Amino acid sequence: MATTKIAVVGSGISAAVCASTLARKGVAVTLFDGARGPGGRMSQRRETAEDGTEVSFDHGAPYFSVSGGNAPVLALLREWESKGLVAEWNHTFGSFDFLSREFLDIEKPGETMNKRYVGVPGMNSICNALCHETGVESKFGTGVGKLEWSDVQKSWSVTGLDGQNLGDFNGVVVSDKNVFSSRFTGITGRPRPLDLSWAPDLAVKLQDIPVDPCFVLMLAFSEPLSSIPVKGISFKNSKVLSWSHCDSSKPGRPTTSLGLHSERWVLHSTKHYAAELIAQTGLGKLTDATVAKVEDDLLQEFQRTGLNISEPFFKKAHRWGSAFPAASIASAEKCLWKPERRLAICGDFCVSPNVEGAILSGLAAASQLVEAVVETANL
After folding, report:
1. Quick one: which of 236, 235, 254 has its CA closest to 245?
2. What's the whole-model pTM score?
3. Mean pLDDT of 281-290
4. CB-count exposure of residue 151 (10 Å: 0-12, 13-18, 19+)
5. Cis amide bond preceding 38, omega within 30
6. Neighbour tally for 140: CB within 10 Å
């Protein structure tokens, strides 16, 4: 089985879990991602303020939970805890109503049903460790431009966005929706890398998976926002804000940089706000004017709570155009699988739109490929 080569496209948690699981089974894995590093929606953003202060943010998934009966994911969680890759985020959350200008439903100690976990020292720590395990060769900054199956060789050829031949593989795992999404063509003007005309049933399932767009604003303050009694806030009756969290309150996060104390918050827009703005501006590169508008809109709404929000010394907006799936297309199977071409498609859009669902999908994809490899070896 050691000679079996699998290509994994994407480096979010589903792809990283799948790649690690395959490698532990003796499969040679090459992982491709056009980004600078791993994580996908679990990536960590590092920035430098004008005065040279270094700040970092979990600007996608703020945390994750695991259901009590989910043994496979719980087993991975315990392993990651033992390695210091994750820790419990043990702080109080609540909701804020913009109509009454009051906090509602503030948690009481021990009230949370499922514990909240975060990667340490960033949400991307888990994916980073998995993508660099023995047996996984990770190639970041390497976008995939074409995945092509050969009936003669019974293998996949992978071509980069620059036309470079990236190798031939016995099977392929895809977790990056851009590989098969029409949005890829809409943004780049290029054909989508994975042509699914040979699998119309698969193409139908993957066609235009509904997503919830979101704009994120990363903020750093020189002093704590002491008027806020919680570290995670869900907003009610706001057309602009849906969620915010104090990123620097998570375990393992630095609270000082260059001698300056900083408290860092991340704000998430409502999907309605994001959809309206994207309808006006499109999904091309954000203009300076759009960035400035998002920064002003989200910060002003945060300050409109009346919670004595000071001016931040750092602010930066980010757009998640299609990262948050609004549907589950393979909740029973947990991944999409085509055995005749050893193609697995996994991600949170398969099971449930959260980290736990993504992990389950990655495990399912790895299981299908390992079984296919064993069957092939026995022929």
Report:
1. 235
2. 0.94
3. 93
4. exposed
5. no
6. 14
